[in-house]
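Internal tracking record. Fields below are filled automatically when a chain is submitted to the structure queue. Please do not edit lines marked as system-generated. If the sequence contains nonstandard residues, flag them in the REMARKS field before resubmitting.
Queue: standard
Priority: normal
Entity type: single polypeptide chain
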Amino acid sequence: MSEQIWKPNVTVAAVVERDGKFLLVEEHTPDGLRFNQPAGHLDAGESIVAACAREALEETAHLFTPRALVGVYLWPHPAGELTYLRFAFCGDLGPAQPERQLDTGIVRTVWLTPDEIAAQAQRMRSPLVLQCVRDYLAGQRYAMELLHHYG
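SYSTEM-GENERATED OUTPUT FOLLOWS
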């Protein structure tokens, strides 16, 4: 009898702050409309850094350049067997790309203060949204040199 191999879902997230507010996306989920950082799954053959830049562009129609790792988070989703391994980055948000459509399922982008995010915790896609903001505000920044992509 073969043993099932467990693997977490690797995701990336962009933590973007401007004037005390954080860029979030409002998106359709199985649980209804929820807020999240611009985030998504790592694609095969893609570096973690490239995935973050791609997901931010697809979900916000803005270029994003990751500059530092805010944190790495392991979160088992309470409703099922999925576990997420999230790499959250802060960086530079570039200009809007008005010709781009937002990714399927994304309703809009919003800028919220940390207090607004905390007050709407039940509307966040996961507890990682607020935790990433708190870690960013606490000054957590790790060098990009921690990450290595072979391939």
